[in-house]
Every structure is written in C-alpha cells, then in structure tokens.
Prior knowledge:
Helix content: over 70%
Strand content: under 5%
Number of domains: 1
Order of helices and strands: HHHHHHHH
Transmembrane segments: 42-64, 73-92, 104-127, 139-161, 197-217
Number of strands: 0
Structural class: mainly alpha
Radius of gyration: 19 Å
Keywords: Membrane, Transmembrane, Transmembrane helix
Distance between the termini: 28 Å
Shape: globular
Largest sheet: none
InterPro entries: DUF1361 (IPR009793)
Mean pLDDT: 90
Oligomer: single chain
Pfam family, one: DUF1361
Protein name: DUF1361 domain-containing protein
Amino acid sequence: MQxxxxxxxxxxxxxxxxxxxxxxxxxxxxAGRVVLSGRWHFVFMLWNLFLALVPYGLSTLLGLAxxxxxxxxxxxxxxxWLLFFPNAPYIITDLFHLDTRPDVPLWYDLALIMSxxxxxxxxxxxxxxxxxxxxQRRLGFGAGWAFAxxxxxxxxxxxxxxxxxxxxxxxxxxxxxxxxxxxxDRFVHPFAYPRTWGVTVVFGVFLLVGYxxxxxxxxxxxxxx
Length: 225
C-alpha cells in the first residue's frame, strides 16, 4: 500500500503551523478592531475564514484516508469539497468593504482585509494542491491540471454568485431551485450577463496564474536543494 499523499510529515506539520499562525493573525486583527472601535463591523470576516478552512480540512482528511476508504470517500467528499471551495478565494472580494471610517485608520482595515484575503488564497491553493495530487495519482499529470483549472474557473463563477447575487454554499440545500434557475439562465443566455462571464474569466485567470506561480516556486525550491 502506498503512503498517503498527506501523511503528517515534517513539511505538512510546518505548513499547518504556518497557516495556523497566519489565521491567528487575522483573528487578532479583527479582535483588535473591535477593541479600537467598539463596533463589530468586520467580525463577519471570521465566518468567512471558517468557511475557507472547510475545503482545506476536507482535502486534508481525504488525503489521510488509506486504500479502499479513500476510494469510497473520494467522490462524495470531493463533491462537498467543490461546493465549499469557492468560499476560500471569495475572501479576496472583501476588499470591496475597504473604505475610510472615523473609528479605525484606513491602513489598519487594509491590513486586516489583506490578511484575511491572503489566508483565503493560501487555504484555497493548499487545498487545491492536495486534491490535484489525488486526481493526478489516479488519472495522470494532465488530468490533475485539468481538474485544478476547472476547479478554479468554477470557483470564480461561485465568487460571482456570492458577491453579486448573494448566494452561498448553503443555497444548494435551502434554496436550490432559485440557485439552479439563475445558473442555468446565465448559461442559456450568456450574452445577457456580460458581468457574470467577465468576473468568472478574469478572476479565474488570476487565480490560475497565482496557483501556477505557487506550484512553480515550490518545485523550483525542491530542485535547488
């Protein structure tokens, strides 16, 4: 039996430690803002961070599964992962909330939002890398990258649904008909929704280039050692 791609090796533990520190910084910045302002304005960012942690937790647990258990879990857990995955890169759009406010300096809010956005991106990329490895082990290198590309483009479409139509992952259960209608309508009449496809393509390419850069940096460092 081959070892799990996500065994708790020293690099894996180091990654978990660094991600935990980074998320802790975001939490401290949010808490600091509450103390400084006496308001709860950016506390919703903590919920967004939690949602960003869900796909990373799912991909980590899936990778730790062995043999037949992993094979049985791959499709159902993978489907849930894909449903929640857009929540991680979605945090970058919280930059829309940046504005001058009298209670806290603008630079502080910028640092807070950027910290959360960074964590969303890193959690998304770490989670996607785990899932890509699982697909690549079964179907090959090309299939792994095709999966990663499709996941990022779908997540960009999910970003549009969340930011502009105010849908979230729970709508699949709580309001599936409305969600289904709005999605199908945009595919049936694509030219009627230029913003939908503008956001999807631009953010998709941005996320894909960023992901490829992170992967290339990691590979280059391994080869240089």
